[in-house]
């Protein structure tokens, strides 16, 4: 029986197609991954192809491919930081506070003798820390501030305090020399004598008698 060129070509492609139809599922059976085509993008899903080359995806699988589940990260609840007890690790847990800012806060606390108000942090010019938004996470316990009589300190020691400058200390020690023996130097006396301003006396009263 004679065949035309077109018939021979057709029989060739038919035999190749039958071969591929039976051989490919055997080759691809180990991969067993399903691919869904959507808007020229491929999405991998968890379904497997056990015995066939392609299985049409279900509507649920298509919806999952279109809208993959979003993992929501649970935000750690921010605790209240006590400024007069906090260490560097606690301070850096606050938004806007890094290692450099934490060291400034601790150094200033040491010079002051403690914080009596969280608004004292404004004196440090912490540009990237928003005190207004973070105020609910801060507290200053004044009972942790250790007070002593201002007359018990030397000129040099008092000069380290942020609320006392050289000129003010000269006036304070001049006034101290005028006191009678046994008379104690206090912030109240300095304020009454006009040696220090009332606003300055109010701040200093948290640290000195």
What does this structure look like?
The protein has a two-stranded antiparallel sheet with strand order 1-2. The protein has a two-stranded parallel ribbon with strand order 3-4. Helix content is 41%, strand content 6%. The chain has helices at residues 5-28, 59-66, 88-91, 99-112, 131-134, 155-159, 166-178, 187-192, 198-204, and strands spanning 35-38, 41-44, 81-82, 138-139. It is mostly helical and 209 residues long. The protein has nine helices and four strands, in the order αββαβαααβαααα. The radius of gyration is 40 Å and the shape is rod-shaped.
List the uncertain runs: 30-49, 72-76
User: Per the principal axes of the C-alpha atoms, what is the gross shape?
Assistant: rod-shaped
Content of β-strand: 5-15%
Report the helical percentage: 40-55%
N-end to C-end Cα span: 124 Å
- Give average pLDDT, whole number: 82
Structural class: mainly alpha
């Amino acid at each position: 029986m004679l065949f035309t060129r077109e018939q021979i070509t057709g029989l060739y492609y038919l035999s190749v197609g039958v071969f591929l139809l039976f051989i490919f599922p055997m080759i691809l059976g180990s991969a067993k991954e399903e691919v869904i085509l959507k808007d020229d993008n491929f999405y991998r899903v968890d379904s497997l192809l056990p015995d066939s080359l392609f299985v049409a995806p279900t509507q649920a699988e298509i919806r999952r491919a279109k809208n993959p589940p979003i993992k929501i990260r649970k935000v750690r609840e921010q605790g209240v930081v006590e400024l007069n007890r906090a260490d560097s690790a606690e301070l850096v847990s606050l938004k806007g506070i890094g290692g450099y800012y934490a060291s400034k806060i601790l150094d200033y606390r040491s010079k002051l003798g403690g914080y009596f108000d969280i608004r004292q942090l404004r004196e440090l010019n912490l540009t990237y820390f928003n005190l207004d938004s973070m105020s609910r996470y801060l507290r200053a316990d004044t009972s942790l501030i250790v007070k002593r009589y201002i007359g018990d300190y030397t000129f040099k020691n008092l000069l380290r305090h942020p609320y006392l400058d050289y000129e003010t200390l000269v006036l304070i020690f001049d006034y101290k020399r005028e006191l009678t023996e046994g008379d104690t130097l206090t912030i109240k006396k300095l304020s009454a004598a006009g040696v220090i301003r009332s606003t300055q006396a109010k701040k200093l009263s948290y640290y000195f008698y």
